Amino acid sequence: MKLSQCHNFKDFRQLAKETLPDPIFNYIDGAADDEVTYRRNTSAYDSVDLVPNVLAGVEEIDMSVTLFGKKLAMPLYCAPTALQRLFHHDGERAVAKAAQKYGTMFGVSALGTVSVEEIGEVIPDTPKMFQFYFHKDRGLNDSMIDRAKAAKFDVMALTVDTITGGNRERDHRTGFTSPPKLTPASLMSFALRPRWTWNYLTHPKFDLPHLSTHVQEGSNIATSIGSYFAKMLDQSMNWKDAEKIRERWGGHFALKGVMSVADARRAVDIGCTGIMVSNHGGRQLDGSRASFDQLAEIVDAVGDKLDVVCEGGIQRGTHVLKALSLGAKACSGGRLYLYALAAAGQPGVERALGQYRSEIERGMKLMGVKSVSELNRGNLRFR
């Protein structure tokens, strides 16, 4: 399969599967336990129908939104995800440049493989988010916050749904670790993907630059992500800790992984300027509700007090339109660009983002709306 044959999410997924060794592909593709929540994240959108209007004069469309005080040219951005240079040797550099091309925000993970300093130089004028994991090592925490601030990142997102690692059984079966290690079970899959293996071995050594100055796990000591979360993250993290992090950061601050109205209200109380309604792509608590299904009640509770982002399961532009109609300020996702990154690097991510942009624009015209602000619940009918 070629990049030119990729016309949607499923096509990019197929090309990524053909490109990556089995443990790497299944790390992106997999989720927790029986992967019920992972599937629900997308199927939830099928329970709602769009009701279009006509004769609305939609020659000119404005799909821009203002999120965390920054104007985005489209209401969809690239959520922060870990380990991107495992998927393609350019990693975050490729995604950053693609996001810059389409005028949208790019998120960098604490477990990213390109530093905030470099990303700040690569896309200085593009809105940037740093995803923060609260570690037991307080010196590491302070270092990450200060580095992201010095690199002029616009938003910090504290991930709150990884108090321990989810049970990602595909990773157990394939033996996935960061950095990768050869096992009898995985040897053949790496041998069958010689291009990926060559690129991994001939490009700069794999590293987690935000962590490697303080801990060796993930960069020099192979570990699974589940084991990393369980061992390295601070399970005593509470609301007071979140408020202290917000105070040290001093700028736009969001909680990533909020799924209850009560938590959304607490986020307002501690001074958050946004929340991501997210279940971590179904990779943590299996059996939890789909992000889209939980969106309306959270928007009703706090949507006038902070920016609410719907994250997870998005595979079409119409999914974005449905979330915006419920009141989300914007949408975000990881797999929606990670498969494209794995398939073809920066050109792949650009093609994926271009297709989402076209789908959103086409959908708005067919809905009879000229700007995102015109989308509302009157556009929807629940089955």
- Major sheet characteristics: 8 strands, parallel
User: What proportion of the residues form beta strands (DSSP E)?
Assistant: 5-15%
Broad shape: globular
Low-confidence stretches: none
Number of strands: 12
Q: What is the CATH architecture term?
A: Alpha-Beta Barrel
Number of helices: 16
What is the alpha-carbon Rg in Å? 20 Å
Brief description of this entry?
The chain is α/β, with parallel strands linked by helices and 383 residues long. It contains 16 helices and twelve strands.
What does this 3D model show about the protein?
It is a single chain. With 383 residues, the chain is of the alpha/beta class. The chain has a single domain (3-238, 282-296, 311-369), classed as Aldolase class I (TIM Barrel), CATH 3.20.20. It is 43% helix and 13% strand. The protein contains 16 helices and 12 strands. The chain has helices spanning 9-19, 22-29, 36-43, 84-87, 92-101, 116-122, 138-150, 169-174, 187-191, 194-202, 225-232, 239-249, 261-269, 291-302, 317-326, 335-367, and strands spanning 48-50, 65-67, 70-72, 76-78, 106-109, 128-132, 155-159, 252-258, 274-277, 307-311, 330-333, 380-382. The strands form 3 sheets. Strands 4-11-10-9-8-7-6-5 form an 8-stranded parallel β-sheet. It has a two-stranded antiparallel ribbon with strand order 1-12. It has a two-stranded antiparallel ribbon with strand order 2-3. Helix 7 links the parallel strand 6 (128-132) and strand 7 (155-159). Helix 13 (261-269) packs across helix 14 (291-302).
